[in-house]
């Protein structure tokens, strides 16, 4: 069998997640080829890579979230994980909150233009608060706002753009829980702890340790799968005063932290979905 891994660039053979998916694909007799969205073009409905037309594939793993070309690439596969419709639906962090409900709590949230007055935001979500880009990843569009000067900087940076403003969960400062769930089953779970600052993203250098999969975590994974039907999800939970607080989902989660911390073969489990 043959398949494509849709990434940002085609030369991402050394990127951990893509490399591991290729390795596990080989074990299952699947020749997985990495195709970068930035390296293809579409002419008259046909996709070209290095001057040659791309043929259909039996399998596609979608690892890129933005633009139209990734949709065209995803259509080359007979079977795809995650489904491109799910990626387009859940890439927006505000829409996630419109769709996903959870028995556990979640931060008070406000969708507004970056030009909104700070006073109105504070009235609803409190101070300090989080300002979050709607389609960011790896913590690169998440800001803790503690004073007027910081908010003024955000207004200048994101002038004219919509942002998600959220209550800051102080009890979870610098730490959170990330689980990898495959069709509602928790494959692995880790606690991420920032070395400094308030962001606990693995991509930003946070320490990761294995975290026990308790009944609340299992239920959250099952509930969210029932609502999204997305095959593979990274689910982030915060530590509230009275238990977990739902934060967000990642529709194209990396697996390095989970495999490292939890000692699981996440790549193998994802490849199994393609059979």
Features:
single chain; 275 residues; alpha+beta; Rossmann fold; Dna Ligase, domain 1; D-amino Acid Aminotransferase, Chain A, domain 1; 3 domains; five-stranded antiparallel β-sheet; four-stranded parallel β-sheet; 9 helices; 16 strands; 28% helix; 33% strand
Describe it:
- There is one protein chain.
- With 275 residues, the protein is α+β, with helices and mostly antiparallel strands.
- It folds into 3 domains: 80 residues, Rossmann fold (3-Layer(aba) Sandwich), CATH 3.40.50; 60 residues, Dna Ligase, domain 1 (2-Layer Sandwich), CATH 3.30.1490; 102 residues, D-amino Acid Aminotransferase, Chain A, domain 1, CATH 3.30.470.20.
- It has 9 helices and 16 strands.
- The strands form 4 sheets. The protein has a 5-stranded antiparallel sheet with strand order 14-13-12-15-16. The protein has a 4-stranded parallel sheet with strand order 2-1-6-7.
- A hairpin with a 2-residue loop joins strand 15 and strand 16.
Quaternary: single chain
Q: Mind telling me the C-alpha Rg?
A: 19 Å
Write out the strand line-up for the largest beta sheet, numbering strands in chain order: 14-13-12-15-16
- Corresponding CATH architecture of the largest domain: 2-Layer Sandwich
Number of domains: 3
Largest sheet entry? 5 strands, antiparallel
